[in-house]
């Protein structure tokens, strides 16, 4: 089975309408262009043959059982905010949106968890927890993402330093398998050694193994106060060397980001958002949150002392919400600033060992420049996930840009590998990084990935051609 | 291939000797009886055909490539302290000990990690971290376990409440695949979305997917002070109801255990270790550790106030090491006490949602008693992992004991499932719980487990007949 897939017929359309509802099914040219792509159309624009908005797991199960029998590919879609070309119908077939499955169940205080359907928005899940005095920490940059999308891509974000990733908060998953089976992976328990850890394999599998229908997430007591510190340094190396020193302090920071002056200048120039600290070629931004003012104060004092003892030109304590906002607005404006400052962008999302950050950043600039591309690395210094934005200048032709980005990415991934890093820290592989993954992981790992994919999806009907490509 | 496996010949023995060294190979009756079983001989006693102590990954790779070609099963062995009948040669073949691969590399301060070979002891890894002012939190009861065994079984322990499981500390794994390939799963990075999360699938796979040759573990800044609280209650229900109240306080406790008076009496009677708190039918033991005395004091005060406001008869603060020791010695003596108080034991290691602990314990006693068995549940109240020890009395025949434990376990697992729990919280499936897992997980999940096993081990030569059984 698998390639080539069945081209859908009127009978197929009617079947999907019959197990859902005609007003929730669109076909052919009636499908909105938005559903042809995610936030990175560069990684593929593919029209679905049918687009359906499902209401429950039974509908998903019926659609999958049918698609399995008929050899029709199915792609599950959340909010479509992915950055890897993941949620697209590369081989046509059905796009199945779970955005109407957006129920959030009441917080379970005894188990300190919250359960939601995949289409619930991350912000709504965070707000539902906060309304009950609890805290869902994962905080990827994209606020309009769905919680299902966050789980299936293992969304990261800058608070990973203290709290970890989406993975670390997923207690259990309910999902539909490619053959239509509805299954539960783990349950609302803290520990589990019952069979293979399939739950963690599913998290981050980018919709290629099963379709999420419900997730239960761990919550924490909410911190009550927060403080941001800005530490300017004369050089990026000094800035990066400060990271392990901050992490060795008794109190673990929530976030550690870095910005180079060049990037601050871009944001100030293009967005007119002004960074409160004018000194330093590179700044480290450290955020603490705590459950008491006392605890916060001692964390902040210790970090400030460590900064000044290790070459920081200053240590600005942004203790008020306004002052902290002026820092985080510049950090949050980076992507927008770079977009305003260039014709197009290509993104490299490597993660390297924390000890190798400065080395990576320096070498990345040299690599990109050797291909005539300006590059602005920035990001999560606390976890080594450096978003390396390649910026297209006006005078580059399409062909030049394509060639230069491909050559740069090839070298950047090789650099990351050499430094003990990985290809993607949080954005995933999707359709955009398959070729690079093959090179990075090597043939034996790709063979293992394929075997794992087949263990779940023997007919290759679920989000085919993502992460790995069989059709060659 | 697979069943039946090749019976090993003198040629096979000589080949293994040639790729290792004759003085590290034992065959047939020269193999020590210890290697026929783990800590639970009840779950199977199986003689290996050959026992070899390897020194490096190249030897393991050579042995696996040969075994793969020749269809010889291989079982990797760590310290042999497992409780599920996992590290045994159920189908004969090779037992491969990694206990001579026990190197611990210097702490990597910049990345805050430690790297060790699988045969290093957990205690030695903990000590190596502590010597550098850092902290490896996972703390399963068994101190003589190997770190590889801890990783491959995802060892738990009582500090999971605050710090999580072994899984949460594994940065990356180097392993040999059944065909002899040497592979790396992730690297020393904090985040990773590069392909499928194979690393987490391997953790807890009980030696059925690959053989670990090196692990890199995350460390934390070491806490500097600790305090234990004992909260006696009139009933188990009140005791269990206190758990979510403790967890809602701003400061997360390191451990929350519970003991019923009956069990304390057994330890006091059999081991002459005396519990410092005499009141209450059930006691909650809460441990905090912190990075400052100030922080610790406010955590302890808040917990004590919450206890007294929620029905605790008292709240004993064991602030000195001696006083804390008197609490933890009784907790630590439970298994020994029960062994002294019964002819034999069978263990049930379910984990239930924290909200259902009291319900489970009550019902578990009723179930066991209905089959004429005394049961003493105890354990990790903070994570719902209740070790339910079935105790054999003197007047039971072998046949009666076998029948009664089987009937009790069947009902206990069904009870756990009904309450939203799992079959095993931390001891795993091994050979001892396969039959129960099949019932618990259901045929579709077992089919998925089998497909996953085959994705790694298409010839079924690695620790066959554990977790799942193909040979039926």
From TrEMBL, chains A, B:
Q: Mind telling me which residue stretches traverse the membrane in this protein? A: none
Keywords on record: FAD, Flavoprotein, Oxidoreductase
In this chain the FAD-binding PCMH-type domain maps to: 43-222
What cofactors does this protein use?
FAD
Q: What is its EC number?
A: 1.1.3.15
**Superkingdom, according to UniProt?**
Bacteria
- The answer to whether keyword Magnesium applies is no
GO MF term list? (S)-2-hydroxy-acid oxidase activity; FAD binding
Q: Which PROSITE patterns match?
A: FAD_PCMH
Q: Which Pfam families match?
A: FAD-oxidase_C, FAD_binding_4
Q: Which PANTHER family match?
A: GLYCOLATE OXIDASE SUBUNIT GLCD
**Name of the protein:** Glycolate oxidase
């Amino acid at each position: 089975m698998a390639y080539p897939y069945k081209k859908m017929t009127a009978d197929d359309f009617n079947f999907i309408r019959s197990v859902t509802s005609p007003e929730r099914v669109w076909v052919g040219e009636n499908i909105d262009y938005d559903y042809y792509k995610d936030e990175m159309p560069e990684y593929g624009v593919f029209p679905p043959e049918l687009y359906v908005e499902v209401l429950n797991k039974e509908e998903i199960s019926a659609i999958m059982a049918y698609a399995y029998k008929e050899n029709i590919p199915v792609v599950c879609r959340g909010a479509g905010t992915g950055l890897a070309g993941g949620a697209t119908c590369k081989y046509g077939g059905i796009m199945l949106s779970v955005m109407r499955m957006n129920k959030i169940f009441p917080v379970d205080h005894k188990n300190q968890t919250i359960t939601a359907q995949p289409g619930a928005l991350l912000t709504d899940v965070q707000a539902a927890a906060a309304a009950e005095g609890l805290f869902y920490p994962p905080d990827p940059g994209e606020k309009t993402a769905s919680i299902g999308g966050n789980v299936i891509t293992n969304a990261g974000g800058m608070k990973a330093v203290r709290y970890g990733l989406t993975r670390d908060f997923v207690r259990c998953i309910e999902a539909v398998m490619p053959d239509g089976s509805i299954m539960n992976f783990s349950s609302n328990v803290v520990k589990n050694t019952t069979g293979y850890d399939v739950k963690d394999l599913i998290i981050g599998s980018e919709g290629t193994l099963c379709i999420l229908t419900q997730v239960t997430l761990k919550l924490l007591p909410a911190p009550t106060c927060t403080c941001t510190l800005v530490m300017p340094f004369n050089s990026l190396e000094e800035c990066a060397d400060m990271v392990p020193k901050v992490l060795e302090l008794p109190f673990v920071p929530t976030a550690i980001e870095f910005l180079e002056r060049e990037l601050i200048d871009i944001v100030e120039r293009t967005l007119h958002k002004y960074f409160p600290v004018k000194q330093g070629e590179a700044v480290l931004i450290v955020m603490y949150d705590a459950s008491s003012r006392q605890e916060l104060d001692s964390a902040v004092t210790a970090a400030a002392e460590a900064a000044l003892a290790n070459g920081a030109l200053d240590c600005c304590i942004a203790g008020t919400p306004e002052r902290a906002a002026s820092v985080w607005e510049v950090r949050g404006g980076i992507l927008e600033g770079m977009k305003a400052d260039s014709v197009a962008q290509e993104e490299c999302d490597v993660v390297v060992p924390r000890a190798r950050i400065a080395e990576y950043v320096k070498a990345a600039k040299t690599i990109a420049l050797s291909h005539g591309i300006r590059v602005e690395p920035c990001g999560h210094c606390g976890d080594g996930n450096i978003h390396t934005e390649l910026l297209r200048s006006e005078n580059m032709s399409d062909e030049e840009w394509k060639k230069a980005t491909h050559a740069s990415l090839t070298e950047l991934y090789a650099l990351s590998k050499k430094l003990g890093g990985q290809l993607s820290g949080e954005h995933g592989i999707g359709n955009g990084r398959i070729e690079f993954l093959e090179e990075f992981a090597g043939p034996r790992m790709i063979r293992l990935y394929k075997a794992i994919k087949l263990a779940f999806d023997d007919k290759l009907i679920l989000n085919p051609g993502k992460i790995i490509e069989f059709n060659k």
